[in-house]
Amino acid sequence: MSSRALHIYDLASASSSLPQQTTSSPPDTAVPITLDPWQRRESSLKFMTRAIACMPNDAGYASSSIEGRVAVEWFDPSPESQARKYAFKCHRQANEQGVDVV
Fold this sequence. Notes:
This protein is mostly beta strands. Helix content is 11%, strand content 33%.
């Protein structure tokens, strides 16, 4: 089984900390930048992650696995917020056209 590590980056603060490159400098002089994750977590899903999507209000994210489970988690690391996370299994059902509906 592969690693279940999730690295969460705050893109707003990351873009402000990046050095601005001028158009006159050649592209081969670019200096590699090390960017540390804002949070490091272990996925609550047992199998490989298939997709991740952020909530519209940027309060958390939903991730899905190849098994068909979906986990909903919040970015706030407080115990109260982490107690709200949950996971559920999607059950596929074929409709009249033979298309799987989740």
